[in-house]
Amino acid sequence: MLVNGKWSANWQPVQAKDEKGGFVRQTSSFRNWVTPDGSAGPTGAAGFKAEAGRYHLYVALICPWASRTLIGRTLKGLEEVISVSIVEPEIGDQGWRFAQPDPVNGASFMHEIYTKADPTISGRATVPVLWDKNTRTIVNNESADILRMLNSGFGELASDAVDLYPETLRAEIDALNDYIYPRLNNGVYRAGFATTQIAYDEAFSDVFEALDRLEDQLAGRLFLFGDELTETDIRAFVTLVRFDAAYHGLFKTNLRRIADYPNLQSYMLRMIDLPGIRATVNIDHIKRGYYSIKSLNPSGIVPKGPYIPGLYEPA
Known about the structure:
By secondary structure, the chain is of the alpha+beta class.
């Protein structure tokens, strides 16, 4: 992690634990918002007006949080408005790295982007990051914020073909987001990075409680709220599409696979077949990335499978 702007020690996935030995995720440190007129958003300061070519998105294809933002960028037709850099999948001793120097900032590692924004910053250098080329700082590094601002913050620059946060469903979206985040999205990490049996057991139960609930909710539905695609579908999909390839084995969430849930499996395949979504899913990056975590896989061996028709082939 970064300590007062200096990279300290080798990368470690668990940097905070609760009293039971459970994994605690770092709080995002940059929370400004892009808005159509540059006014302040729900958090942070004003001054980030929606403009084509001004913003740059840093992502990892292994990372579900970053993939949320890539999908949002695609569905809202912002590919020509917001440029993108993709880090290498393997997580090394200095965290995320670029295969070639980053074209926007010339960085070799993601932590250099953070110190450009704040030379004295302390914390992990996570993705996604939305960068402002004009003021040369990080706008936001919270994926939930970025996904929501991609939906509405870019005004007429974005497509109105889909509204990921429709007013009529906002209460339901917020409630289901609040349910699936700790139990499923972060639940798989709580299981995989647990340091005690009780912490693992609690996370394991939460994961499969959430999957069972979503399986029931999808009965007879195209998406989680019926026929209308929302941000909650994106938030669920990015975890589901990684589950059988990484979380089921490496993170020990092995009671059932997504392939064992008929509704979830069909839903996942519908999601990946939406225009542009398949291009945001790279199973090679996902497996290489997760299986590069030395604390979970010291040998570094990447498994060949699984084979799931319509989703991904064996290596």
